[in-house]
Amino acid sequence: IVFSVSHFLPLSLSLSLSVSLSVFVSLLLSFSVSASLLPLPLPPDYIDGEGGWSNWSPCSVTCGNGNQKRTRSCGYACSATESRTCDMPLCPGIEDAYKTAATEVSLLAGTDEFNATELFGVDTDSCERWMNCKSEFLKKYMTKVSNDLPCCPCSYPTEVAYNTADVPDPSTRRDFRWKDASGPKEKLEIYKPTARYCIRSMLTLESTTLAAQHCCYNDNMKLITRGKGAGTPNLISNEFSADLHYKVDILPWIICKGDWSRYNQARPPNNGQKCPDNPLDEDYLKQVEEAWEF
Question: Where does this chain mainly localize (predicted)?
């Protein structure tokens, strides 16, 4: 800063004024720098770090299969969203939608009454009887199931984690719709121990059976092809009837006292895509030995 007043003032006063101005400028600069280092005030809605999850939103549908979402704060102007599937009661008319498959089952059975316990040979007293059931109806139905269902993908298709998704099936050169089957209601820790993820194929209007493919995967998202964690075909999809699915697919496992080695003989896990054996021989043989001892 240059002042011309020094021409009109005595030398001593001029020097004093110059020093005072220097000190003032230094203080001003010091204050300016200090102020710039102070943190800016934060908006009132700012949350430092991660906030808690909100409640799950209502299911996106009132019947059938939908999804739910919840959110949480992850910092200023940041929010995280999590989704999950939700199953509501079947939509009215679902039986009509799958009338082709239901009619086919009735024709195969030779009866108009659909008694799942009798048709599929479920005997509440004997696992051995159930395993050895070789009725003509069951043979024909199992053949149709093997032709009707897609093969299990060798890796867990992550696109089904939060919603249903179409997945190509190389063996049939068709796309099949799948849904995740890893939720708490599936009770994987009981029925499919060692499985971390499972998926289930969905019925289509062209289905000739009421069955669904069931595939399970380990922590590395690789298909479990054998052993106690392997998925097995569901002869009745829970999408059609949760009650019939329980009687036909879950009850036999229970009457066999959870002996997967016998259950899987009657309902072999699918490995139509020739995925690598999983688990490896050593672990698989241990599981077999444990099942026999049990």
Answer: secreted
- Structure-derived torsion over alpha carbons of residues 74, 75, 77, 82, reported in degrees to the nearest 10: 0
The H or E element that residue 37 is part of is: helix 11-37
Token digits for 230? 């392997």
Q: Do both 145 and 281 map to the same domain? A: yes
Q: What is the pTM of this model?
A: 0.65
What CATH number corresponds to the domain at position 80?
A: 2.20.100.10
pLDDT tens profile 137-174: 888 888 889 888 999 999 999 999 888 999 999 888 88
> By C-alpha distance, which of 224, 195, 180 is closest to 87?
180
Q: How many domains does the chain have?
A: 2
Residues 62 and 186 in one domain: no
Going by C-alpha positions, the residue among 236, 237, 282, 290 that lies closest to residue 261 is 290
Q: Which residues contact 55 (CB under 8 A, 6 or more apart)?
A: 70
Contact 28, 22 (CB under 8 A): no
Whole-angstrom distance between the N-terminal and C-terminal Cα of the chain? 95
